[in-house]
Design brief:
The complex is a heterodimer of chains A (221) and B (732). With 221 residues, chain A is an alpha+beta fold. Helix content of chain A is 35%, strand content 11%. In chain A, a hairpin with a 2-residue loop joins strand 1 and strand 2. Classes of the chains: A alpha+beta (221), B alpha+beta (732).
Chain lengths: 221, 732
């Protein structure tokens, strides 16, 4: 990737966060970060058109931006280094999305970006501009639950519940892609979601129930 | 006043009549043959919708007006004197509101708290830590138990790192071993496991009007309250601790741990609420772990396959903490006339241990059950049969038969071993626990004029379904649908309860809730009786209706009855009286496992587990099954993957992340069949037992036994990583 300004004066050892902070300062960096998400070419299109070779300059101070979350435009002013999960939780008060590992290895912060499941700790909020962001709050609420949420409750696909929003988001995206997903497909769709309570068997059962009710699915949990 | 009641207890097939003396105001204990409406029915957890929609509020989700974010600086050195902590640059940083020195000058593990800051955002707080200048004087350290035990090893505290032995002895082990027809001797080791609760440790603290309110991710709101009251010199009623939802604990979240105290100190300093939630890495380093173990086991057995001697010489390291013993299973699972245990804690410069799901038992069960297998092979006895011959618990006897049949033990034993590179193996291991609960908890039941019933109890739900279990018990007693019951827990403003640990919550709290509900029912019956032209004692509550027992046409709905409440509500308390004299402590379980071992790569896959457990009165098979699944899966992780890796040269943990510290993920999950045996406990009015620990005791052991069967060689070291499997195959 093409680096932006020289960050060599930073005395702290390079952490993932400081890497992201540096990377986010230019659109070139933004594209590099988003590329890890796959399928999301729209990220480039969403940033303002600039002459070739000229990078978008953001930060390092707070930047005003808008995010489209659950169909609503939400304005916020945050440093470009703020990840999407922290923007949601700490700046927008949307705490349904959980932050657990902060390095994309546990799936607890899974949200949908244009319908694709992504770990929100690995996406900078600035890079989510121009995308349709769906969080657990956008899927349903206790009075009107999404079929996956309802199935999770009835199969008891949760214990402490801290991984549950991420699990629900992963399963919902998988069943959106393939409504008749079988057990194997379901297992793979949550392969990146860690549950320390070990509640996976009931997660599979819940997902299979939804898949079966939509007319497909073979295999049992 | 007290009364005598006769109840049927034990296994449905062979009930035991027992007379117990109970106080007059204690409801008649549930017993075999009682017809339940909701007890024993699969009931989705009452807070399921909140958890599935992200609306459940955990400590991590608490945001208060003006709240600051705290962060903790930790020592990069495993052993050091802190000569100076310079906070000035951090304090000058824009957005920083407070910086505190935390250390007393002595660092004994890498990750120990040194200083803390509070700032307007979490990012600024993290940045500010980099501006704190600490002058460390590094000292010699030791992180490896073997090295720490050697003469001349660096002292973690002072003097020898090896603690005084804790010993127990019955009979004459040396004599019995000398006389035994068969003897085996082997040494087993287990790694340090970390809890990895998904919600890290942390708290939001707020001082206001001379009172301290703390939201924290804790398994014991009252223990945290008492600790904080002492530390901040406040009367207990000026400290309120709230834990509405808690993202896992597994034993690591008791008491006012450092981050809770730091949040409160920062809040006091700043005069506004402060939130401190640990980053993931800190969670692995500093919030507790299951100690390691090295267990030298000697068994003697006679010619008939009976154990005649069990000898355990053990040491384990819980870092700068203790509690590394593992003798429980050796003393309590298989009866033997001559048993000797000798356990020693070894201090190392690593993070302190804390209780973890059945403290000491999974490590002990691993060594015990592997030794059982080694002895069975020596005796040329079927491994299940060897366990049967050495079992005297009638409940476990039934469980072993049920489990063996469901698992197909005999058929699998008879099946021909594959000649190909992938080999299958089977194993069985036994569990025991003593989840009978204790007296202490109280509960309050409130009926409102609109017909809602509230149950308040200061326990907490670590994910086991405590809220749901309490609601089920109240619904059963009051004859109401569960939707009409609201359970309020996790707050020191509610009636006292115990910490949630040791599988104590259900057996300790359900009897208090049932008593409170029964007392509330008595009050409501007194209101209903005149309207129905009957005595209160003639009434019963069922299906949302109160009716005359001998004339069901005379009835009033619960809602109509509540409208007759004079004020806004009526309430009644209940308490948890001590276990009745008849209670049993022989809670048993067993688990069977089948694995597949790739002999070319050393990779192990668990195919199936059958878990058979005794849960006393089964309150909710659905949430109970979740707990057993979880115990089994955590055990598979312990058997195959999990280990805290320390670098002995630099004294640091090398894998403090959720990708490098490998746990069971969705693709590692086998088929798990859970079976419950209904056995009334006889100690309380509900007869409930806890199952969180017993679910986990035998899991790693059963998997290891199956792996040993597959590779045809003893297994003596966890976790069973491919390199160890390949090494074991070489010796097969």
């Amino acid at each position: 990737m093409k680096s932006g300004k020289d960050k060599g004066s930073r005395k702290r050892p390079l952490s993932r966060r400081s890497f992201l902070k540096g990377a986010a300062l230019t659109s070139a960096g933004a594209v590099a970060a988003v590329a890890t998400l796959g399928h999301l070419e729209r990220a480039e299109a969403s940033t303002p058109a600039l002459p070739e070779g000229v990078a978008e300059q953001l930060g390092p101070g707070p930047v005003a931006m808008e995010l489209k979350i659950n169909g609503k435009i939400m304005p916020l002013t945050i440093e470009p280094r703020v990840t999407l999960v922290r923007a949601l939780r700490e700046h927008l008060g949307m705490t349904g999305t959980k932050l657990v590992c902060d390095r994309g290895s546990c799936g607890a912060c899974t949200v949908h970006l244009d319908g694709q499941p992504v770990t929100a700790c690995m996406v900078l909020a600035v890079d989510a501009r121009g995308h349709e962001i769906t969080t657990i709050e956008g899927l349903g609420n206790p009075d009107r639950m999404h079929p996956v949420q309802d199935a999770f409750v009835h199969a008891d696909a949760m214990q402490c519940g801290f991984c549950t929003p991420g699990m629900v988001m992963s399963i919902a995206a998988a069943l959106e892609r393939n409504p008749a997903a079988d057990l194997d497909a379901i297992r793979h769709s949550v392969a990146g979601n860690i549950c320390r309570c070990g509640t996976y068997p009931h997660v599979f059962a819940a997902a299979l129930k939804v898949a079966r009710e939509s007319g497909g699915a073979k295999g049992s949990a | 006043m007290s009364r005598r009641v006769t109840v049927n207890l034990g296994i449905p097939e062979a009930p035991r009549e027992v007379t117990v003396v109970i106080p007059d105001d204690e409801p008649t204990p549930w017993q075999l043959g009682d017809h339940f409406t909701i007890v024993g029915v699969e009931t989705p957890r009452v807070d399921g919708p909140a958890k599935a929609t992200g609306t459940a509020h955990y400590t991590y989700d608490i945001a208060l007006p003006g709240m600051l974010y705290g962060a903790i600086l930790r020592s990069p050195w495993p052993h050091a004197h802190v000569k100076n902590v310079d906070l000035s640059a951090a304090k000058r940083m824009p957005g920083v509101r407070a910086a505190l020195k935390i250390t007393d000058g002595e660092i004994r593990f890498a990750g120990q708290e040194v200083a803390a800051v509070a700032a307007t955002t979490s990012d600024i707080a993290a940045d500010a830590l980099a501006l704190i200048k600490v002058d460390y004087e590094p000292l010699p350290f030791v992180v490896d138990m073997e090295a720490a035990s050697a003469d001349g090893a660096p002292s973690v505290f002072s003097g020898s790192n090896v603690g005084k032995p804790q010993t127990s002895s019955s009979g004459d082990v040396e004599h019995a071993l000398a006389q035994a027809a068969n003897r085996i001797e082997a040494t087993y080791t287990t790694p340090v496991q970390t809890h990895v609760s998904l919600e890290t440790h942390g708290a939001v603290a707020h001082f206001e009007g001379g009172a301290l309110t703390v939201w924290c991710s804790t398994q014991g709101v009252f223990t945290v309250r008492d600790d904080l009251a002492v530390l901040f010199n406040l009367p207990p009623d000026k400290v309120r601790v709230i834990s509405e939802y808690l993202g896992g604990g597994f034993g690591s979240k008791f008491g006012a741990s450092p981050e809770i105290v730091i949040a409160a100190r920062l809040a006091k300093e700043c005069g506004v609420p402060v939130k401190v939630m640990l980053p993931r890495g800190d969670e692995h380093l500093a919030t507790g772990n299951r100690p390691s173990s090295e267990q030298k086991v000697r068994f003697g057995a006679d010619a008939t396959g009976k154990l005649v001697a069990i000898d355990l010489v053990q040491r384990g390291s819980g870092g700068i903490g203790g509690g590394a013993g593992s003798s429980g299973p050796f003393k309590l699972v298989y009866p033997c006339a001559n048993v000797r245990t000798d356990e020693r804690n070894v201090f190392t410069n690593t993070g302190p241990s804390s209780p973890m799901r059945a403290p000491g038992w999974p490590q002990g069960a691993f060594a015990l059950e592997m030794a059982m297998d080694e002895m069975a092979r020596k005796l040329n006895l079927d491994r299940l049969e060897f366990r049967r011959r050495n079992n005297n618990n009638p409940i476990r006897a039934i469980e072993l038969e049920l489990g063996a049949r469901a698992f197909g033990w005999t058929e699998k034993c008879a099946a021909k071993k594959s000649a190909g590179p992938v080999r299958r193996g089977i194993g069985v291991a036994c569990a025991a626990w003593h989840a009978v609960g204790a007296s202490g908890p109280e509960a309050l039941a409130i009926a409102h004029r609109d017909g809602r019933v509230e149950i308040r109890c200061g326990t907490q739900d670590i994910g086991t379904g405590t809220r749901t279990a309490l609601a089920i018990v109240a619904a059963e007693e009051l004859g109401l649908p569960i939707a009409q019951i609201a359970t309020e827990i996790g707050d020191t403003r509610y009636p006292f309860s115990l910490p949630s640990g040791g599988s104590m919550s259900s057996p300790s709290n359900t009897p208090a809730v049932r008593q409170a509900a029964a007392h509330l029912k008595d009050k409501l019956f007194k209101i209903a009786a005149p309207a129905l032209g009957a005595e209160p004692t003639d009434l019963e509550a069922r299906d949302g209706v109160v009716r005359v027992r001998f004339d069901p046409s005379r009835k009033i709905s619960f809602k109509d009855l509540c409208r007759r409440i004079a004020g806004d509500s009526i309430s009644a308390g209940g308490d948890r009286i001590p276990n009745y004299a008849a209670y049993r402590t022989d809670q048993a379980g067993c688990q069977f496992a089948e694995v597949e071992v790739d002999t070319e790569t050393g990779v192990v896959r668990v195919l199936r587990v059958v878990a058979v457990h005794d849960a006393g009165t089964m309150i909710d098979p659905l949430t109970s099954r979740s707990q057993i699944n979880g115990g089994v899966l955590m055990g598979i992780g312990y058997a195959l993957f999990e280990a805290r890796r320390m670098d002995p040269q630099i004294g640091l943990m090398m894998n403090p992340t959720m990708d490098d510290y490998k746990m069971v993920g969705p693709l590692d999950v086998p088929q798990i069949d859970v079976m419950f045996l209904d056995v009334l406990n006889g100690g309380t009015n509900t007869g409930v037992l806890g199952i969180g620990e017993v679910a986990h005791v035998a899991s790693a052991a059963a998997v290891a036994c199956a792996v040993s069967d597959a590779v045809g060689a003893p297994i003596r070291e966890l976790p069973l990583t491919p390199d160890r499997i390949l090494a074991a195959l070489e010796h097969a």
